Amino acid sequence: MFQLLRLAMLRANKGRAFRPGLAVSIVSLASIAGMCQPVAAATWCVAPGGAGSCYPSISAVLGVVAPNDTVRVMAGTYKESVLVKVPITIIGAGQNFTFIDATGMGNGIYVDGLDNPGLSNVTIQNLTVENANYEGILVTNASSVSIWGNHVTNNNKGLNPTADTCIGIPAFETSEGEDCGEGIHLMAVDHSIVANNLVDFNSGGILSTDETGPTHDNLITGNTVTGNPYACGITLASHPPAAPIVGPSPGIYRVTIVGNTSTYNGLGVAGAGAGVGIFDPSPGTKNYSHVVLNNQLIGNGLPGVAIHAHAPGQVMQDITISGNTISANGADTEDAATPGPTGINVLGVTPVTGLIIANNVIQDEGVSVAINTGANVQVHLNNFDENSIGIDNLGTGTVTATQNWWGCAGGSGTAGCATVSGSGVSTTAPLQRQIIQQ
User: Do residues 161 and 203 lie in contact, with contact meaning Cβ atoms separated by under 8 Å?
Assistant: First the structure.
């Protein structure tokens, strides 16, 4: 009854879509109240200056919406930081027409489930989000969020890349001083989709972390992530927990990264970022059960795929890297150093177990696959460049490498073919080239 009264009272307000058939008389309201039926979600509009009886800003309309309403944002530029607290769909007129300019503000859009427990079913679509001091789009502690068809660009303006600091970033972001949280950041987010976005010229591209809770069962697909100079294109980074969480990190698990293009990231300083990075930086952090499938990973400052478990007492396991095109990336650096340039690099102080590297095409790299961990790694059905070290086993573990194409018919160890470096690598007869290309 109260919701129906609210709808009637707001019908004369700006931006409310008309729904025929709902009378506003006292008699009709009393009649409807007795039906015990849910109220249909409403559609609101936002336009520059409040044109056409719309609201003048997204923030203004979010002050009056009900859960599960839709907000349509007309073409124009909106100088604001948008805070989302309820289930809502926000749809722009297209990323080339609708702009959220967060110059001088923290985030372009913040979906805040940290302060609004249980937040779910939020959609952000068809917007350009730019110029924020921190993330273009930040999502915390939420479920079933869709970030779809947006352009997220030129954010992380608060970063001082020389000092690796981001002044004023919230305390719950425990490890974001070096990148201000990147363009799109999912923290303690589950069952969500980041799809078909263009993410460019931020410090880094798409970031998943777990400071305030586990991040899991998410899909990152169809995005173009390019030209982000100070971090990876796509990153899964388990971090030390924020207060009041105590003990090991909650973890990142069951994330699928499929069909993305991640190119020319991490070139602003030496060793800044990979095409896809999966990182456990400190004891107790956890990354597991991920799939990296059918991505284009080209020209990044670190390897096309970099997997780092830097310390004892971590979890890094059950990851599949398959069907990717990997080319012309950089060598890994510092404590994960490889001879490089490197297509895929695996460092595991904690053994990286259950790792499968299969059916990738790796070209224009000095080392196609570099492995340094005390476990067995499966490397099958890959296409290595004949001018490379196909597999470089730098650690104490073993590599089972069957049916790879080594760049020529003779297979590993034959003149003119890709080679094997290090011990503990077992190979079988080479796969015929025409089979791997089918």
Answer: yes
